[in-house]
Amino acid sequence: MAKQTKKQKIRAALDGEKLYTVTEALATLREHKSKFDETVEVAMNLGVDPRHADQMVRGMVSLPSGTGKDVKVAVFARGDNAEKALAAGADKVGAEDLMEDMQNGNLNYDRVIATPDMMGVVGRLGKVLGPKGLMPNPKLGTVTPNVEQAVKDAKAGQVEFRVEKLGIIHSGLGKLSFSDDALIANFKALTDAVVKAKPSGAKGKYVRKVTLTSSMGPGLKVDLAEVEGA
């Protein structure tokens, strides 16, 4: 018989049907933590079919406790806006030179931001940035004249959420070393934002299942009573 992995042993020892409060789930994840600082993640199963435009769920939310991750930001801007983006902490700022760099495969960024006047340049990167979910979008605040604030928000813990084709949203909530209060604040901010983003085409129960996990930990079902509006 194949040897069980640590993750399999943990799963076998837990009641897979138990519903946890967020506090209980975090305590359980800490009991089984690994030697490195794991990322705490949430998965939300939604009653939507994102193949239909009126059932797409997507947005941005600022996590009050941050993500614990160094967010790499690229900005398309010129002149004063380029200088402001650099001063705000952008990792790379440019115009046609940045476009060519990305076309050559240099795409190691978590967020791409652009001023409106740069969209003629950015538009040529649709096939490159689109599949990675990095294409700047005015609805998400990543096409904006205020690149300084957009960079600061991205660096401070603003995350994008987007429903996958199976109706699931995945997002990191921070590190297991964060306090319970910090992780609960992030959980509330994210789940509230997803509930508020309920699309017009969603029918029946919207939030169907919520799971908390960590990088190497088990998936724990969260009581939907913990999610406001669910």
TrEMBL record:
Record text on subunit structure and interactions: Part of the 50S ribosomal subunit.
GO biological process per UniProt: regulation of translation; translation
Recorded name of the encoding gene: rplA
InterPro entries found in the cross-reference section: Ribosom_uL1_bac-type, Ribosomal_uL1, Ribosomal_uL1-like, Ribosomal_uL1/biogenesis, Ribosomal_uL1_3-a/b-sand, Ribosomal_uL1_CS
Function of the molecule: Binds directly to 23S rRNA. The L1 stalk is quite mobile in the ribosome, and is involved in E site tRNA release.
Family from the record: Belongs to the universal ribosomal protein uL1 family.
Gene3D superfamilies hit by this protein: 3.30.190.20, 3.40.50.790
Key words, A-Z: Repressor, Ribonucleoprotein, Ribosomal protein, RNA-binding, rRNA-binding, Translation regulation, tRNA-binding
Domain of life where this protein originates: Bacteria
Protein name in the entry: Large ribosomal subunit protein uL1
Keyword Repressor: yes
GO cellular component terms given for this protein: cytosolic large ribosomal subunit
GO molecular function: rRNA binding; structural constituent of ribosome; tRNA binding
